[in-house]
């Protein structure tokens, strides 16, 4: 379990960079960064697939699973990004993250129905703390930045729920494949998703500033290139490898709760970028999330220990 926890937290530390990258590449848009990022992800995946070992591991994956891997890359990355972008455009930057942030709360409850690793009552306290923490962080950040809370329109609600559904479907299908009796090799599985994400990025290319007709300074282009490499190689490729390793080792109900660490890391990166201290709401929210995850880890560890057969005591 310890290795799975380390892989999961490392994934969240890399995913947390997403909270500062769009601001760091301005005046390029988040769509520009997403297309460049997932293009790098796809190129890195293709480079690894040219290696004999990874190529052989790919051929060992059943054709139906290869197609699923490509679909997870396209929908899980590009589809989720578009759904969130449209939700924010329709309802502002405060309410949609509160809905998509419910994933670490909803997914463990769904996973519980399948595995029942813990009783539902045991999950209520950690999930409640995580939910309170998510709300406090989002509202505290909105108050600090002066973001206005717009009413949730029908389109904003629909796209927010769609983004949440995509994330939940991705996590469940990914865990189902990686926890099967014959799971694919994590690097080959990551490369499949990288190719799927790159295909989606190519489809979106005509709607970006990268398609031409825009003028940017050398410094702005350099910043986009550096952040695209960082997000493509670390925030996407390496993070997906780490998440695949975590999904193999941890129950889905626990792995899903670890994703709240992405919010905590993202908030920390944002504070460093803005060179300011957290507000009381951000501090309290992060503390609630961390305590909730720690409580969940403790309860899963107790459950795992209780399931282990007790050996006979022998006298020496």
Describe this structure in words.
By secondary structure, the protein is mainly alpha-helical. The chain has one domain. 78% of the residues lie in helices and 0% in strands. It is built from 14 helices and no strands. It has helices at 2-15, 21-24, 30-49, 52-59, 63-91, 95-100, 103-115, 120-145, 154-178, 186-204, 218-249, 252-258, 260-274, 280-307. α1 (2-15) packs antiparallel against α11 (218-249), α1 (2-15) packs across α13 (260-274) and α3 packs across α10. The longest helix is centred in the last third of the chain and has 32 residues, at 218-249. The protein is globular and about 60 Å long. The two termini are 31 Å apart. Residues 311-316 have low confidence and may be disordered.
Q: In summary, what is this structure?
A:
With 316 residues, this protein is an all-alpha fold.
Q: Into which percent range does the helicity of residues fall?
A: over 70%
Distance between the termini: 31 Å
Helix/strand-derived category reads mainly alpha
Task: Please tell me the overall pLDDT.
Answer: 86
Q: What is the total domain count?
A: 1
The percentage of residues in β strands lies in under 5%
Order of helices and strands: HHHHHHHHHHHHHH
Main sheet attributes: strand count, strand direction, barrel closure: none
What's the oligomerization state?
A: single chain
Are there runs of 5+ residues with pLDDT below 50, and where?
311-316
Keywords: Cell membrane, Membrane, Transmembrane, Transmembrane helix
Organism: Xaviernesmea rhizosphaerae
InterPro entries: AA-Vitamin_Transporters (IPR050638), EamA_dom (IPR000620), EmrE-like (IPR037185)
Subcellular location: Cell membrane
């Amino acid at each position: 379990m310890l290795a799975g926890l380390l892989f999961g937290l490392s994934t969240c530390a890399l995913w947390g960079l997403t909270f500062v990258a769009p601001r760091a590449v301005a005046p390029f848009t988040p769509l520009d960064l997403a297309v460049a990022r997932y293009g790098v992800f796809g190129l890195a995946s293709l480079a690894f697939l040219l290696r004999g070992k990874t190529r052989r591991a790919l051929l060992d994956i059943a054709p139906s699973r290869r197609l699923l891997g490509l679909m997870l890359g396209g929908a899980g990355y590009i589809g989720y990004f578009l759904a969130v972008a449209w939700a924010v455009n329709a309802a502002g930057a405060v309410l949609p993250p509160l809905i998509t942030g419910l994933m670490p709360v909803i997914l463990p409850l769904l996973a519980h129905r399948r595995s029942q690793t813990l009783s539902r009552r045991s999950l209520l306290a950690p999930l409640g703390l995580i939910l309170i923490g998510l709300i406090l962080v989002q509202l505290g950040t909105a108050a600090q930045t002066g973001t206005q809370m717009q009413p949730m329109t029908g389109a904003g609600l629909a796209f927010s729920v769609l983004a949440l559904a995509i994330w939940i479907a991705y996590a469940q299908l990914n865990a189902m494949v990686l926890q099967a009796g014959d799971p694919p090799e994590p690097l080959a599985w990551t490369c499949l998703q990288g190719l799927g994400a790159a295909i989606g990025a190519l489809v979106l290319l005509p709607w970006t500033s990268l398609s031409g007709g825009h003028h940017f300074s050398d410094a702005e282009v350099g910043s986009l290139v550096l952040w695209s490499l960082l997000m493509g190689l670390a925030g996407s490729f390496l993070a997906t490898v780490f998440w695949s390793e975590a999904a193999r080792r941890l129950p889905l109900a626990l792995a899903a709760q670890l994703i709240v660490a992405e919010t905590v890391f993202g908030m920390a990166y944002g504070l460093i970028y803005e060179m300011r201290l957290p507000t009381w709401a951000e501090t309290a929210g992060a503390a609630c999330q961390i305590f909730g995850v720690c409580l969940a880890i403790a309860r899963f560890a107790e459950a795992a220990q209780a399931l282990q057969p007790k050996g006979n005591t022998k006298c020496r």
